[in-house]
Amino acid sequence: MESPVASDAVGARESRFDWFCEAVSTDVMPVALSTRRAADFRASITDLDLGVVRLSVVACSPVLSRRTSSHVRRGDPEHLQLALVTQGSVRISQRRNESVVAGGLVLTDTSRPSEGACTGGQIESVVMQIPRQAVALRPDRVDRLLAQSLAADAGSGAILADFLRTLLSRGPGCRPEELRAMGSVALDLATAFLARQLGDPGQAPGEARAQETLQRVHRFVENNLGDPGLTPRMIADRHNMSLRRLYVLFGDQPLTIAAHIRRSRLERAHTDLACGELSGQPVQAIAARWGFSSATGFSRAFREAYGITPTEHRALSQVTHGIQRTETLHATHTPAR
Q: Pairing mode, if any, of strands 32-34 and 54-60?
């Protein structure tokens, strides 16, 4: 979990509102923001990386937002944003829909123009940023829910809201692999919630069901990368399908199922080797954590993927972190002029 960043931490010579505008446009998406309270503006942003999805808590003084077609062309993460409004109220409009949301959930699409406005005082919301392709529902069906006020006090909405609150309070004590697993759960709950708003998910056409199965397989792979026995055959058996059907399911994907497993394992090992907190663990221990049983095979695969050995990557990462720490300390202790 990244440390929360508040506008109060911004230097006195910098505009807190300008900081907030820059943070949103850079880290989330290009958008035009305005406020009548720039002089005493307050805001904070906290992020929780859950792998397949990202959770953000945004609290700020009253603000207006406007995302135009020009903003979309400048930058589009292609995300669905499912927001739980936990304080204050907000008016959202998108795709000819408009709602005022307080204490509920609302869905927006970063690929479409939108407008938003705080209708009261301080606003706080928990925002789940979901890659659109990760939602196992047809886009035209999901579009019906955009900018609609969705209840979060009963049924699947309440379950989802409670789970998000628990993630925020307990997430800092979880290991990265635990957070990734929880991200898969959060995505499943969000998808089930959205499907419930659309009616009986069993009525979805075959193409949507195939997409749902594909995403379920992806999440299963993410949650079991550390198992050396994770193979296409094992995945097919666990999902009650033939090996041939599994291969067909991945037929139009960038990678085969076997290549996807291998790349995902390498990415996890690549991240862990660059982590300073894990610098005392042997390279082979990290490789084994992500399902590599052979040290030689891991080193060869790593070099083919990244052009350097695991040991070289770790050494370079440590040097980079050292330089960054030095620059941070220098900037912190440099007196303002």
A: unpaired
List, in sequence order, every residue forming a beta bridge with 45; answer none if it has no partner: 5, 58
Strand partners, 274: none
Distances (CA, A) of 311 to 106, 280, 318: 46, 12, 11
In angstroms, the CA 247 to CA 252 distance is: 10
Bridge partners of 125, per DSSP, are 58, 85
Dmax of the chain from CA atoms? 69
3-state secondary structure string, 175-211? CHHHHHHHHHHHHHHHHHHHHHHHCCHHHCCHHHHHH
Q: Which residue type is seen at 165? A: R
Beta strands in 132-265, from DSSP E residues, in sequence order: none
pLDDT at 321: 62
Res 326: pLDDT = 52
The DSSP-derived string for 18-70 is HHHHHHHHHHT---EEE-S--TT--EEEEEEE-SSSEEEEEEESS-EEEE-HH
Q: What is the pLDDT of residue 11?
A: 40
* Cβ count within 10 A of residue 162: 12
111, 132 Cβ separation under 8 angstroms: yes
CA distances from 73 to 70, 97, 288 (A): 5, 22, 43
Kindly give the interhelix angle for 257-273 and 310-333, rounded to the nearest 10 degrees: 50
Q: What are the residue ranges in the chain where pLDDT is below 50?
A: 1-14, 203, 328-329, 332-337
Length, in residues, of the chain: 337
pLDDT of residue 324: 52
Q: How far is CA 64 from CA 90, 120, 146, 314, 334, in A?
A: 10, 12, 18, 44, 36
Rounded Cα–Cα distance for residues 37 and 69 (Å)? 27
